[in-house]
Amino acid sequence: MSDRRVRVAVAVGLAAIALAIPFLFGPYRVGQFTLVLVYAVAALGLNLLVGYSGQISLGHGAFFALGAYTAALLIEKASVPHLLSVPAAGLLCLAAGFLFGVPALRLHGLYLALVTLGLAIALPQLIKRFDGLTEGTQGLTVEQPAAPGWLPLADDQFLYLLSLALAAVMFLLAWSMMRGQLGRAVRAVRDREIAASTLGVDLAATKTRVFAVSAGYAGIAGAMYVFAIGFVAPEAFTLTVSFAFLAAVVVGGLATISGALFGALFIEFVPVYAGDV
Fold first, then answer.
1. How far apart are CA 182 and CA 189, in angstroms?
2. Would you tell me how many other CB atoms lie within 10 Å of the CB of residue 224?
3. 216 within 8 A of 97, measured Cβ to Cβ
4. 22-47 CB burial, b ≥16 within 10 A, e <16
5. Helical H runs in 105-231?
6. What is residue 51's DSSP assignment?
7. What angle, rounded to 10 degrees, do the helices at 3-24 and 155-179 form?
8. Model confidence over 64-102: pLDDT tens digits?
9. Is 68 in contact with 41 (CB distance < 8 Å)?
C-alpha cells in the first residue's frame, strides 16, 4: 500500500473516531473533548507563527481573550447569531494581529517574546477597566448554542459536533495555506532570511501576514471557547493560557498541522490525570 493510501486511511479512521466520540462518552467527557478542539485551533494558529515562521509569541492568550469577548458581546449585547460571531471574532483578531505585528515583528527572538508577553499581561487589565461593556471581574454569561429540535442530539453532542466542524475547516485552511505560496515564503524566511530576500520574498510583509493569520486563529478559538463554556471573565485568560498554547505546540510538534491536535489533548487531559497521581 502506498504512503498516500496509508495517510488517507489514517485520516478516515481518525475522522470516524472523532465523529463517534459524542456518542461513546458522557456529557462531562464530551465537554473535555470539545475544549480539546478549541485548544487545537488556537495551538494550530500559534504553530503557524512559531513552527513555520520561527517567531516566538507568548501573547496569544490575549488574542484568544479578544476573540472570546468579541463573540460574547456580539451574542449577548447585539443579539448576533452564534455562527456569525465566529468570523467576526476571527476578523477582529486578524486586524489586531496585523496592527500589532507591523511594529512588533521588527524584533526577533527573545525581544519579540517579551513584547507579546506584555500584551498578554495588559489585556486582562484592560478588560477590567471597561467594566461597563465587559462586566469587569464579574464576567459575562453567554447563552450556549442549543441543538435544533429536528436533530436527535443532546446539547453537549451538538456543541461538540459544531466545534468539530469549525476545527475541521480551520485545519483544512491551514493545510492549504502551508502548501501554497504563503507556506513556501514562510519556510524560506524561517530557514534563510537573506536568501529569501534575494529571491524576492518580502520579509516584513510575510512575517506580518503570518502573525495576523495566527492571531485570527486564536480569535476563532476564543469564540469557540465561549460556545463551550458559556462564560467569560478576565481571570480565565491569564498568562497560563499563553504558556499552555506554547506547550501544546512544542509537545505536538513544531511545523506540523496534526500536532496541534495532539498538543491540545496533552494540555487538556495530562494535568487532570497528573493531579490524580
1. 11
2. 30
3. yes
4. beebeeeebbbbbbbbbbbbbbbbbb
5. 109-129, 131-134, 155-179, 181-191, 193-198, 203-229
6. I
7. 160
8. 999 999 999 999 999 999 999 999 999 999 999 998 877
9. no
